[in-house]
Amino acid sequence: MSGASQNTASSASPIIKNQHPAGAQIKALRLQGKRIMMRPLVPSDHAAWSEVRLRNGEWLSVWEPQRSEFIADPATDYQAFERRCAARDRERLAGTSYTLGLFIENTFVGEVNLNNVLRGAMQTGTVGYWIDRAHAGNGYVAEGVAVLSHFAFEELKLHRIEVCIIPRNTNSKKVMDKLKFRLEGLAERFLEINGVWEDHLRYGFTIEEWQNRKAAITQQWLVTKT
Ligand SMILES: CC(C)(COP(=O)(O)OP(=O)(O)OC[C@H]1O[C@@H](n2cnc3c(N)ncnc32)[C@H](O)[C@@H]1OP(=O)(O)O)[C@@H](O)C(=O)NCCC(=O)NCCS
After folding, report:
1. How many whole angstroms from 81 Cα to the centroid of ligand 1?
2. What is the per-residue pLDDT across 66-80, written as a single tens digit (0 to 9) for each?
3. Does the residue 13 lie in any domain?
4. Which of 67, 102, 164, 210 is least crowded, fewest Cβ atoms below 10 Å from its Cβ?
5. How many other C-beta atoms are found inside a 10 Å radius of the C-beta of residue 17?
6. What's the CA gap between 172 and 64, in Å, rounded?
7. Model confidence pLDDT, tens digit, residues 144-195
8. Is residue 118 pLDDT above 50, yes or no?
9. Can you list the alpha helix ranges (DSSP code H) found in 151-206?
């Protein structure tokens, strides 16, 4: 062993066994709105997540990519859910995706995600979401996206976020109306949804727009410090 590598080894901080140095950052993320809280899902959320997913089968499946028959369903397979949580933790650590459970008074009701985070010249991310039909119609997802926008622009310092919606998904377009995201246009055959290459409307929101509307969004959806 060379002298240089011996020096490096002796001056390095020890890593506690089985504990990643960024572990606290991975697990501790909590985003708070006026009525909602969002945090990464953990294996112990399986029972709640699975109950909501199974009860909302068609409500969700018509708006989501088809699940491969070769991949275990996390809704019915605890270990598949555990692997899903671990994969999401790794993505968050790498800074590529932030997948968050949506909670109302500690009850799991859906998910709001910031996916496909790209740095370089784009500094962008794609927002996706869904909610239990039993809790739909309360503006909870709009609040979740407002909270995620704050995180994306103020914490991650992204320049732009986007939401992509099939034109016939009127409920999701209502979320965009509430948040006043800017309609950019139609991307043809943009994403595979339920087995079909579907056209999607692309809604954009940049940091310049965030800065102009931050005060109003904060007042309506976010927790203000007193
Ligand atoms: C799209 C979705 C996330 C909206 O979430 P939400 O928190 O209910 O959003 P809102 O409360 O703003 O409601 C949006 C519209 O849904 C409709 N709606 C409300 N409650 C509903 C219910 N129980 N059943 C059906 N539609 C309902 C209303 O038209 C409402 O618009 P309005 O508030 O102007 O009346 C939710 O409908 C959902 O999860 N749908 C299935 C998955 C999906 O489409 N994901 C998005 C893919 S881009």
Report:
1. 26
2. 999 899 999 999 999
3. no
4. 67
5. 5
6. 13
7. 999 999 999 999 999 999 999 999 999 999 999 999 999 999 999 999 999 9
8. yes
9. 170-179
Q: Decide if 33 contacts 147 (C-beta within 8 A).
A: yes
Sheet hosting strand 124-131, strand order edge to edge = 31-32, 36-39, 98-104, 107-118, 124-131, 160-165, 196-206, 182-193
Does 96 sit in the ligand 1 pocket, CB within 6 Å? no
Answer yes or no: is 128 within a domain.
yes
Which has the minimum average pLDDT: 20-34, 96-110, 115-129?
20-34
In the numeric block, the tokens 């965030």 are attached to 210
Residue 8 domain flag: no
Is 103 part of any domain?
Answer: yes
- Three-class secondary structure of residue 50 per DSSP: helix
- For residue 190, what are the contacts with CB-CB under 8 A and spacing of at least 6? 164, 197, 198, 199, 200, 202
pLDDT for residue 124 is more than 90: yes
> How many angstroms separate the alpha carbon of residue 24 from the centre of ligand 1?
34
CATH number at residue 80: 3.40.630.30
Atom of ligand 1 minimally distant from the CA of 174: 14
Cβ of 61 less than 6 Å from ligand 1: no
Q: Measuring from atom 16 of ligand 1, which residue has the nearest CA?
A: 171
Name the pTM for this structure. 0.92
